[in-house]
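Weekly structure sync, notes
Attendees: PL, DS, HV (note-taker this week)

Item 1: Phospho-N-acetylmuramoyl-pentapeptide-transferase
DS walked through the input record. Source organism listed as Candidatus Thiopontia autotrophica. Sequence as pasted into the shared doc:
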Amino acid sequence: MMLYIGDYLADFYGGFSVFQYLTLRAILGALTALVLSFMVGPIMIRKLTHYKVGQAVREDGPQSHLAKAGTPTMGGALILVAVTVSTLLWGDLSNRYLWAVLLVTLGFGAIGWVDDYRKVVYQDPNGISARSKFLGQSFIATVAVVWVYMSASTVTETQLFVPFFKDIVIDLGLLYLPLAFLVIVGSSNAVNLTDGLDGLAIMPAVLVGGALGVFAYLSGHVEFARYLAIPSLPEAGELAVFCGALVGAGLGFLWFNTYPAMVFMGDVGALALGAALGMVAILVRQELVLLIMGGVFVLETVSVMIQVASFKLTGRRVFRMAPIHHHFELKGWPEPRVIVRFWIITFILVLIGLATLKIR
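Item 1 (cont.): predicted structure, written out as tokens:
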């Protein structure tokens, strides 16, 4: 919105043309989302507390978590509000990539909201059934990837780029559809599985989102993309504004979610954030880099898969509890230690992901 207002006002005063700069709008998007989070956060927490929108804790989880029962949840709505308002304010609203990622984020957030609502109102820690949740995710992801595929204007938008190798490019064709689907749905559920400790999921999401914003900006710049041998996607640059808003909103939420948490993200935030990261990754053609940078999310998901498979096949558990962050808790690690160490691991993995820009 401010892009168009700036264009109009630039006819009267040239200084307003500064809003044409993508980097400035991305920074302002982050700051706007951060300020919105600080302003709306306390109000939302008071409302959630007043209406007793408290977390229902699973009885089969770590005993230390029982004390968290009743802590306000559904705080992820704060992230969605901040990201949406900031993106609409500073983004180019004619950009199809921007609308694709924003609508996918809100769609998955709506599924999470329904899940959280059932947990809060009916005091059911399991929320909606796994099948219903997956069907909802599948519908939104399918519509999104088909629309992006059908609207693609260049073959680059449907190719698979292998990190560290500039000459390995795979033309996916129709295989783009299942790959994109798996990235969006898989990323959404991976972040949701990770969201089990105070601040554990949000900081890795912020780090990965910020790095994807760098990829988006560079891919949207013809000269930078050519120099770095990465996909040249002119429309992708605008995703830097969305990623900036995600970083600002995430840090603002972390202010209230850091240990001991004043509010929990809930599925409304976790499912939406994961889907957002997955959608941005496929739009900037960095699915494999997302796999690297989101290694903590991958580890959490794989730990659950291993635990379930082992128990069904042998009757034994590999981990004391899955996802794996609970395993470390039951080994005696204090919750803050688990959280910060997973943050450090993500920081390292994000640096490795960014290194793929030059190491090819």
